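Protein modeling request. Please complete all fields; requests missing the sequence field cannot be processed.
Requester role: graduate student
Desired output: 3D structure, token encoding
Chains: 1
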Amino acid sequence: MIWLNPAAWLALAAVAAPLLIHILVQRRAERVPFPTLRFLRPTRLTAIRRHVLDDPLLLVVRSAIVVAAVAAVAGPLLVTAARRDAWSRRIVRATVVSADTPLAANGPPPFLAREVRGPSLADGVRRAIDWLDHVPPARRELLIVAPLTIGSLSAADLAAVPPDVGIAFERAGTLPPARTVPYGTVQSAAGTVVREATLTGARTSVRDVSTTARAGAEALPIDVIASPAARPFADAAIAAVLSQRVWTPPPDRRARLIIAEVGTQRTSNREPGTPNREPRTENREPSVTVAPWMADAIAQLTRDADLQRAAALATGALPDARFSALPWRTIAMSADGRPLIVAGAQEGRLTIVSGAPASDLVTPLVVRALVNAMAVTPDLTPLEIVGFPGDRLQTWSRPAAAPASPRIDSVDGDDRRWLWLAALGLLALETWLRRSRRDRATAATEERVRVA
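Delivered output (452 residues):
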């Protein structure tokens, strides 16, 4: 037996109420008619408090009413073999369908069913699991109906499915033998390159469609601020990055890279009257709140393995201690454990401050990582035309297991009605006992009056 609301047993303390009523109730003195008082000697009146239970049976019945009501509120569920067989005979099915796949009804309808469509099969599986966790006890099944192309689902997505939930697959839709789709734009030394990808069976090829010439520094949506001495190294870093190609960020995303290596602000040998073109950081602190794309870019910069390895070997440092505190976010640490690269948001731009020497390998790596982090990388997974092999789907498939002990929040029936009936029966018995006691007391009083 399980209890659907076990916290209700705390109300069992109310069983003390009938006992207190029987003990503490104040009863009026009974008047007894007597023919004469002249032969009785006068005495002083003394108050007497009674602490003796004069009707134990009525007390027991009243206490049993409270216990039955509390047990009914606690929600008992007797898990019998017959009830388990009934649960095992019914099927609850969640069907995950890809966005553009029609769903045809096959076989007898299950006890409960739900169709889940989403932007991806992984998202649909998560929503289906959440629904299956709250259904009544039954054999639970997860059916995935889709073209089932490679990359649309992974073993990690199915690992979250509870072990007693069955998993089945059904291929739906037709896949073309080949497909050619746009594959974004990249920035190169020659300019902006538009590309397209061709999927032919298991082979994927990418080719350049057109190229728009642009100047090297203008091709990147990054304003690089550096001292005159560091500027040639910054330009060389940009040229190196463009030679290897980087993704093109959306036009509404811009960034600022400040190369603030220690010593560039104070070691300038400019002649008097020459304007100061050395890099300086903004006096205003960056905003605490950053745009979602900025937060994603900062996280991607932190995960860039090449940038982290190069920063760990660098010996530079940021020129100001305020970069070590919020709202600046540390991207990479130097060899001596101090912040080397930090990020923040200023005037709608993602601002990166680097304390590494401009000639260090960190400079081109941070430029490349920053541009790629700002871009939206095209995803060919939804356009794949090769399906999972049958043996892979067979490995992931499994039958639904018999339901175990049901969860408290998913049971669709219980046995509390029998306790409520018992409570009503005891209440009727209590009423009968109370009235019968009162009738007998009244009859005895009338008899004494008549005799007197």
